[in-house]
Amino acid sequence: MRGQPALAKRSTPVKTQKNSKSQASSLLCSSQAEVFTSGGVTSRDDDPKYQQFSDEELKIIVEEAKRMGLICAAHAVGKAGIMAAIRAEFKVIEHNSMADDEVVKLMEEKEIMAVATITPIESILNNKDRYPPAMYKKTVQVAKAHKAAYKQAVKAGIKCALGSDLFGGIGSVLSPGLNGHEVVLAVEAGAMTPLHAIEAATANGPMTLGSEQAPSSGQVKEGYSADLLGLDDNPLDNTNMLRAPKNIRYIWKTGNLVKAPGLDPWGVLDR
Ligand SMILES: [Zn+2]
User: Fold this and answer.
1) How many domains does the chain have?
2) 179 alpha carbon to ligand 1 midpoint, in Å?
């Protein structure tokens, strides 16, 4: 998270089921292990309702990661994958779309963080023609439950960070730079107040890397990285302004100015 003012995180996805131990052992130099414990929504050939790794494999991955000071985040949509991650002592659950009472209670007990992501769901629902039919169908199936699970987790006091799942190219409907949408969507969904959403997007982000890997970032405090934004308006009064990158006039990354009028980190004109 160092140098990332808002929502992105560094991680190493562990995707295949063979040789979990040797794969997990290659985590050196990563700051987190991200494991797809359920099928995904934007992936082509899997189903979110199925658990993707055995309990034994997940346990090995967590043990190996722990040996190197890393925690594991589960990329989990369906309940089977979420529960498998909880049993294996994962510390972060991303998406968490099918979380119910049982899941939320366990997350609370085990102090597991949630990283809900409304951005890709909204984008796919609003741009049906741009995505393959199978992806659209899966999105429709999880959208309603996702929002309800998100609100339930926040209400229960689960610590949340905001993710974005932005995987498109520059200029696409899911391109990097649109991270601020997630703050707006968290508020619009009725899950968070503007202040809560901004805190989740900034101060809480580093915590998803665990105490050993979290950089000193996400707080305006002596000794912390100066990751700061200069905005055109007060986002507490006008959260919607975070939707447009052009309203984020200045970005300081670890104290260095990387965006300002005439200077854009993406190498493209302000949108
Ligand atoms: Zn995802």
Assistant:
1) 1
2) 14
